[in-house]
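pasting for ref
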Amino acid sequence: MFETLKKAPVDKIFALLGEFRADPRPEKMDLGIGVYKDASNNTPVMRAVTKVEQQMLDEQTTKTYVGVTGNRGYCDAVVDLIFGDSIDLDRVASVQAPGGTGSLWVIIQLLNRARPGGKVWISDPSWPNHWPMMELAGLNPQSYPYFDPETRQVRFEEMMAHLDQLGPDDIVLLHGCCHNPTGANLTPEQWDVVADSLKRTGAFPLIDLAYLGFGDGLETDAYGVRKIAQTCPEAMVGFSASKNFGLYRERAGVAIAIGKDKDQAAIVLSQMGNVIRASFSQSPDHGAEIVRRILTDKALRAEWEKELGEMRDHMLRNRQKLAASMRKQSNSDEFDFIAEHRGMFSLLGLSKEQVEKLKEEHGIYIIDDSRVNIAGVPEDNTDALAEALIGVTR
């Protein structure tokens, strides 16, 4: 049986983490793997999460199944968080899934049922897992222009020239906010143009919403997904609570469909449930119940939003300080884009050889496409990081 197999390619992000852990240098920096880190280089358990977990320990009386579509209170609370009163919720169907990746998996399995082998247009570049997931589901991934490595800005005119040529059989994958890996995001005015184009062409929007609240705040970050839902008759959204609730290992996600009407939403809900039953049967409830309790309790929600704001401010300070240090070290404005971008990542524009040199000579670990985790930047030592970065590029 197994003689027909070859060794699968190693995931470069987790391979890099292994190298980092094996590096004995005390001054080493992990700016690779995409987890939030505070000023002490720790990925904390959020305060509201700790309180809720104690509640659950005291109050839970069973670990029985919650149902194929998951924790309904959790799904409803997340839908409310994302959309508020911006759309008619009768159009919305939602199911719990294991993390943002699990929510995307449910969605793309359903899309392949609706459009077998259909084209999915993915931004260039995008999260590395988007492409292989589409292929594994039987869909046909293609790329559309998005990021200009010279200007470090969105290639919006080229992007729209491409999207305007699509049709009803095409699926367009959009990052709801905090684009991974570039950090270069659409403005509200640009979201308006994208939404109008999708409505006009009939192309189907799929939104990956993994970083809600990590950019400019919950309401601002939700602008794009709300605009799409208001403008287009149909859409799907994959939500992750890994980053904004710090629940990486708990795998709390939601797969959301917006249909033309209540009847269509019910059909899609039944199909998503069918996908879940045939794949992982049930989602883990611990993280979902944590999120449900936080979002439906006024005091806990306020405490969570306050800490989320602190996390966002920490990343913004890191951006500003690193950009200032890079300006000082390079004597140019070449890296000012770091302060302008939003979210946990930016692409620095280094070559693979320069990234390798950064690791070998300085113990600084970033992904080979030069994506840097802004949350991992040492806030009190950006000059040293900037000196090493400039050193490998000169």
